[in-house]
Specification:
This is TrmB family transcriptional regulator. By secondary structure, this protein is α+β, with helices and mostly antiparallel strands. The protein contains four helices and three strands, in the order H-H-E-H-H-E-E. The protein has a single domain, classed as Arc Repressor Mutant, subunit A (Orthogonal Bundle), CATH 1.10.10.10. Helix 2 crosses helix 4. The longest helix is centred in the middle third of the chain and has 13 residues. It starts with a helix and ends with a strand.
Length: 75
Amino acid sequence: MMEAETAYAAAPALPPELQSPRAKLVYLYLTTNEHATVGEMGDSLGMKKMSLYSILKTLRKQDLVLRDGDAYAPT
C-alpha cells in the first residue's frame, strides 16, 4: 500500500488553465512519457490524430508543450 501512496504523491500537478478532460489526458501522457509523436499518443490514448493536433496546438499556445520535429514534450 505504501508504494501506491508514493506513486500518487509523485503524480504531476495539472496546470489550472487546463479545462478540457482530453487536454488533461494528453498533458499527463506527455509528462509521464517525457515525449511522444502524435501517432504514439493516438495509439496509446485511443484518440484520432486530428483531435490530438487540435489539443496540442492549444497546449503549445499555452506554453505547456513544445514541438521538436515530430515529437511533443512538456515544457
